[in-house]
Amino acid sequence: MNFSEIDVAIIGSGPAGMAAAIKAKEEGAEHVLILERQEQLGGLLHQCVHNGFGLFYFGQDLTGPEYAHRFAEKVRDLGIEVLLETMVTQISPDRKLTAVNSREGPLHLLPKSIVLAMGCRERSRGQLNVPGTRPAGIFTAGTAQRFVNVEGLIPGKRVVILGSGDIGMIMARRLTLEGAEVRAVVEILPYVGGLTRNEVQCLHDFHTPLLLEHTVTEIHGEQRVEAVSIAKVDKDKRPINGTEQMIACDTLLLSVGLIPENELSRMAGVELDPLTGGPIVDQFRETNVSGIFAGGNVVHVHDLVDDVSWEAEIAGASAAQFARKEKLEKRRRIILKPGRNIRCVVPQAVSAQNDVILYARVKDMEENVQLKVGDIFAQSLRVVKPGEMLKVNLSHSQLSQLKEDIVEQIIECERRRYDG
Amino acid sequence: MAHMETEVLIIGGGVLGAAAARELSRYKVDVILVEKEADFGWGSTKANMCIVCQGGDTLEFRPEYHRSKLVWDSMPLMEPLCQELDVPFKRVGEFTLIRNNEELGKFQKLKSRAEKLGMNSHKFLDQETLRQMEPNITREAIGALFDPNIAIVDPVRLTIALIENAGQNGVKVMRETEVLGISQKVNQFEVETNQGWIQCRFIVNAAGTSVDKIARLVNSDDFVLYPIRGYVGILDKNLGGLIEHEIHMRPDVPGQMNILTPSVHGNLFFGTTMQPAKRGDYSTTRRIAEIGMQNVRKIVPDISVKDIIHSFAGFLMFRNWEVGWHECVVQSSRKVPRFISLCIGYPGVSAAPATAREVVELLRREGLTLEGNPRFSPYTKAAPIFSELSVEQQKEWIAKDSRYGHVVCRCEAVTEGEIIEAIRHGATTLDGIKFRTRAGMGRCQGGFCTPRAVKILSRDLGVKEEKITKKGRESRLLLHRSKELIEAQI
């Protein structure tokens, strides 16, 4: 492998990294290199043995490993170079990349362009600051998923799950099928954090108790988890006195949010959006650092793997174009800003010459709203939830309605008015 | 059950027991150190802010008290000790913030009192100088009292290095060995442990939070101790550059404290609220956590709850809570000959070097013969920390053992080679690996590396993955194999 002539370096080989690499290669980048810290291509897809992957991308219902396999085969067929068990430790703003592995030792690369595809990590107990003791038996849902599905090991027999993110709900089902008793899924909000389909298929179908507007107030047990205290919460999410109850359990799983993994991005001087936790990107998925692109969950946490791959393809195509020294045509820059009941939007800026898909997440659940982008787009929606991402297709013609002096558009949810 | 004999038995492998063991290893004396946990420094030693050479706090010490002397005498000993043992030590200096004239007056008094006692290092800084040195701290500070002596260490690494050095010099060390009973015979003790009987002539009781319990086993009740619990939060390394010095602010509420400090590993620690607790209750509470956050935001207003990656309860034993925090226990029993108890309370890590010397002196007075150990070497070499090596050194290590190129903990960039080395040096648990290598101490808190570390432990120790524990005893991480529960139901 010739490390001195890399056109596009891709960091991570999950559903984003592989899609970006394939697209970059197809768009004419000659030397595309994937750097992956695990033993095989696919990132976290290998531990996601459940189905529901690729319904939109492939029009088929696949498991995580199957979804990964399809991309991995293409990576191999296209002759994309891959370094496994390789950890990228540094990226500088001038795209110098440092990595390390057992075979080549410390590696120094200077690719023409970089795609950030590091994905996201789970919020931990420490970040939640859950009070109580520090026994064994507390895991994030994803770590438990790896133990169960990859290592063949079951954390415990009586389980409480804090948070109702998708991985948490999927693990509720998985552990039930393994013979464990999921004693409760405890969610602080009045609705589940993940997809409705997971709420139905993973919790309701198995009669798993779901306690909404509740939280874990204390962890008990000195050596191993023995119980958790839970309580109902008020509107400000604070526990209500007198509602506490103890649930005996040996395991507590946390499914309380995902954080885009951007430590390398920071080192490279990439500007991050505090609302998404990921890089601020334009519709080409270029960051503020020239030649550094990003796609997938590293930019913002998606609901569906299909969107991760699609978004990363945009980054891969742009990176290939940049590596060919072709200027990305950006006629103008219109900043997109979240307005009423919108938590975040990606991309954060668009140019007006192509069709573009906007991804947005709402802050709170709301019924009967009109989703608007300035005056150029409006759509009525019966219900919006933070757990389900909104997608807005803006056409080139809608965007070109905007006068030349307009530099900003607000995306917002308006309460719908009824006529009679 | 084994039956062993030794001259001196040290009970407790925290920083005080470890320092005493290492100090005794300078002499030709048979020493056994027993620790009830699976690794060293897991009591009060790990549960603090990692600050040493405290002069700022000693401003309020009373010189007539023994504890002040041990802390002051330890100040010049700490840095050379860390050098000998290859333990990270950083002299960061301390700012005690001054917010109004009342505070200024109080510190002026304390400073001139300290000067009368021969402590001349404190200096007042004006607001402008303070801002230049620490631009991110609160605008409310009108100045600060600066103590250049304050330093930071990694207390658990220090303890492990002391133990290793003592071991190299002939001390026998036993882990997961809990003292259950002590009977006094003529001129000797018979100590019952879960690993068998140990016969010894002298006992150094450095059992930390159990030091009074151990003393009661020989009916030596010369002192009463009170467990005190605090709260410590650890902030993400991204905030590492926010402050350079240890920052101390006088608490607005009595009984609290308010400290923000860098750690030797690049995180920030903040600590607050010391209050009486139940012995061994290392839990944190929502209220304490909230007070902690409110307090640290008084020092640096930009810090938020989102920056916390981990928190824990600081824990120690204090003597004479009613009369203040002024006295410690470093003494021979009044009733039982050849029985010495140690408990510094706060700051135990800071006082460890001088305390260890005093233990040797107390043993001598109780009749222990001290003859120089010709094999004694004060030096211990720490295992390599891959992420801190130069590129050339990294290449060398990977060439020697390719597993140094395999990063297992992504947040702290800890390699498989380092984990294997930690296991070779005695780590048997997930927390053992964590405290020795920092794998799992980063912002994802082991989310990524836990399955990998369990695999490596299982492979290198030759035990099944289900047997691997977080911290020894009953703290197994994974209770079942796949299909085990289903089969049990069928």
Number of strands of chain B: 22
Residue-averaged pLDDT of chain B: 92
Known CATH architecture of the largest domain in chain A: 3-Layer(bba) Sandwich
Structural class of chain A: alpha/beta
Tally of domains of chain A: 3
Structural category of chain B is alpha+beta
Estimate the helix proportion of chain B, in percent: 25-40%
Oligomer: heterodimer
From the 3D structure, determine the CATH topology of the largest domain in chain A.
Answer: FAD/NAD(P)-binding domain
Number of strands of chain A: 29
Number of helices of chain B: 13
Radius of gyration of chain A: 22 Å
Most residues in contact, chain pair and counts: A-B, 54 and 65 residues
Runs of chain B in which pLDDT lies below 50 for 5 or more consecutive residues are: none
Spatial shape of chain A:
globular
Write down the CATH topology of the domain at 87-152 and 226-319 in chain B.
D-Amino Acid Oxidase, Chain A, domain 2
Distance between the termini of chain B: 41 Å
Secondary-structure blueprint:
The complex is a heterodimer of chains A (420) and B (490).
Chain A: E1 8-11, H1 15-26, E2 32-35, E3 51-53, E4 62-63, H2 64-77, E5 81-83, E6 87-91, E7 97-101, E8 105-109, E9 113-116, E10 120-122, H3 125-128, E11 138-140, H4 141-151, E12 153-154, E13 158-162, H5 166-177, E14 181-187, H6 196-203, E15 210-212, E16 214-220, E17 227-232, E18 245-248, E19 251-254, E20 258-260, H7 263-267, E21 292-294, H8 305-323, E22 334-338, E23 342-346, E24 349-350, E25 356-362, E26 366-373, E27 377-384, E28 390-394, H9 396-399, E29 408-415
Parallel strand pairs in A: 1-2, 1-9, 2-5, 9-21, 11-19, 13-14, 13-19, 14-15, 22-29
Antiparallel strand pairs in A: 3-4, 6-7, 7-8, 10-20, 16-17, 17-18, 22-24, 23-25, 25-28, 26-27, 26-29
Chain B: E1 2-11, H1 15-24, E2 31-34, E3 51-52, H2 66-85, E4 89-90, E5 94-98, H3 101-116, E6 123-126, H4 127-133, E7 143-147, E8 151-153, H5 155-168, E9 172-174, E10 179-185, E11 188-193, E12 196-205, H6 211-217, E13 225-235, E14 246-249, E15 258-262, E16 268-276, H7 286-299, E17 308-319, E18 329-332, E19 339-343, H8 348-365, H9 391-400, E20 407-409, E21 414-415, H10 416-424, H11 430-437, H12 450-461, E22 480-481, H13 484-489
Helix pairs in contact in B: 1-5, 1-8, 2-8, 10-11, 10-12
